[in-house]
Specification:
Elements lengths: L2 E6 L7 H9 L4 E4 L8 E5 L2 E5 L12 E4 L4 E3 H13 L8 E3 L3 E3 L1 H14 L11 H9 L12 H21 L7 H15 L3 E2 L1 H10 L4 E4 L23 H6 L8 E9 L1 E4 L12 H9 L12 E6 H11 L3 E5 L9 E8 L5 E7 L16 H14 L3 E5 L7 E3 L2
Parallel strand pairs: 1-10, 1-11, 2-5, 2-10, 5-7, 6-8, 7-9, 11-14, 13-15, 14-17
Antiparallel strand pairs: 3-4, 12-13, 15-16, 17-18
The structure holds guanosine-5'-diphosphate, 6-O-phosphoryl inosine monophosphate and magnesium ion.
Magnesium ion binds next to loops.
Length: 407
């Protein structure tokens, strides 16, 4: 009953989707366990680029059963737009299952996300404005609407109406324009009916798969340092991307987890506000943005860039029980004369760097570990020595085939 978890070890956008696509070949199901359409997961296959938000990244393989686990918050317009786009590109979503326990996102969550950010002013989090925080807040307040409700259209419509009125009061109190309740009820009647056939008791389904010895891959969105508990609070997302969240967000207990893969770029990026000790605000940062194409898939925002931070990575190893690392986007460093890696902080929190010479070689066509330049090996060995777990996959380009692996 092998269960693999893929978790971001930094602040998101580490290249999780590409690694999931790679590992999907040896699994039967790919299960998203938290987050919502704040995620932007990119898989590049030849000239085709797939940017996924809610649908698990394994969907590109016909043998994979894609599952949206109970920990995810689901925005129905986005879900169906994604399904329609994928199907128009000949990727079938017919096998998709959505947990009956998922909470749904409604337009008031998005309106409130923007109003809460406005209230914070200069202290704003820089959210994706997708309504993620307000939807999880309603879940915690025990007033959320779950996917199972769409199976009962009359009571679903009543719930939507009641919630729309209740949230309109808050929107007005915060100075916003109230939403059109009848319009939302009518829209969600249609969306709910479309969702109904996908709604499943996924916990039961996944345990039946485990009993058959199927191999499950649990897909994290966001990352360790955006985790509501373990991240740089309050500059975090409102769910638990860390490996414990994979258990909660799927209903699979910890004893099943056999492989926990932490994904880290060979440098660091962050979108939105919050601390970033190794951030580069000079031309080296601009160079990382340019070569790494560091612009958000969801919001188009320029990602903040900096050097790899092994203090944080060590913490990610502990919090997630990582068994191995995938080091992505190593090719982005190909033209750097010098590569810095933070191995410790000073007493007042300034990064202390180890400086490695760059390899100044194009590694994008490398398919064999032994063919990586010595400088790249030195970086990989430094990471392994400092964090205490092996690097098993190295990303050498955006394309599906661009990686080297030790397995
Ligand atoms: P995710 O949110 O963790 O799945 O990552 P994103 O898809 O948001 O961002 C990662 C970006 O880097 C995407 O555009 C990928 O196509 C790209 N990418 C992934 N791995 C590599 C790699 O090894 N090298 C390069 N150059 N690009 C990569
Ligand atoms: P993937 O899965 C990077 C960031 C936002 C903001 C904070 C809170 O592609 O790695 P939210 O809308 O979640 O309330 O915003 O979290 N954020 C991400 N940053 N990658 C993501 O997802 C992110 N999802 C949310 O920028 O700082
Ligand atoms: Mg992303």
């Amino acid at each position: 009953m092998p269960v693999t978890v893929v978790v971001g070890a930094q602040w998101g956008d580490e290249g999780k989707a590409k690694v999931i696509d790679l590992l999907a070949a040896e699994h039967t199901h790919v299960v998203r366990y938290q987050g919502g359409h704040n995620a932007g997961h990119t898989v590049v296959v030849g000239t085709e680029r797939y940017a996924l938000q809610l649908i698990p990244s394994g969907v590109l393989y016909p043998h994979i059963i894609p599952v949206i686990g109970n920990g995810v918050v689901v925005d129905l317009p986005t879900l169906f737009r994604e399904i329609d786009t994928l199907e128009s590109r000949n990727i079938s979503c017919a096998k998709l299952k959505v947990s009956s326990q998922c909470h749904l996102i409604f337009p008031w969550h998005q309106t409130l996300d923007a109003l809460y950010e406005a209230v914070r002013g200069d202290d704003r989090i820089g959210t994706t404005l997708k309504g993620i925080g307000p939807a999880y807040a309603d879940k915690a307040r025990r007033i959320g609407i779950r996917a199972s409700e769409v199976l009962h259209p009359n009571t679903f419509a009543e719930s939507v109406r009641a919630q729309a009125f209740a949230h309109n009061s808050e929107i007005i109190a915060l100075g916003g324009d109230p939403l059109d309740v009848d319009d939302i009820v009518a829209t969600f009647a249609v969306l709910g009916a479309r969702l109904a056939p996908y709604v499943t008791d996924t916990v039961e389904m996944l345990h039946e798969a485990l009993d058959r010895d199927d191999a499950l891959l649990l897909e994290g969105a966001q990352a360790t340092f955006l985790d509501l508990d373990h991240g740089t609070y309050p500059f975090v997302t409102s769910s638990n991307p860390t490996a414990g969240g994979a258990c909660v967000g799927t209903g699979i207990g910890p004893r099943y987890l056999t492989r926990i893969v932490g994904i880290t770029k060979a440098y660091s990026t962050r979108v939105g506000s919050g601390p970033f000790p190794t951030e580069l605000t000079d031309e080296l940062g601009d160079k990382l943005v340019e070569i790494g194409r560091e612009f958000g898939t969801v919001t188009g925002r320029r990602r903040r860039c900096g050097w790899l931070d092994l203090v944080m990575l060590r913490k990610a190893v502990r919090i997630n029980s990582l068994t191995e690392l995938a080091l992505t986007k190593l090719d982005v460093l190909d033209t750097f004369e010098e590569i810095k890696v933070c191995t410790d902080y000073t007493a007042d929190g300034q990064p202390i760097y180890e400086v490695l010479p760059g390899w100044l070689t194009d590694i994008s066509a490398t398919t064999d570990v032994d063919a990586l330049p010595a400088g790249a090996h030195a970086l990989i060995e430094l990471v392994e020595r400092e964090v205490g777990i092996p690097v098993r996959i190295v990303g050498t380009g955006a394309e599906r085939e661009s990686y080297v692996t030790w397995q």
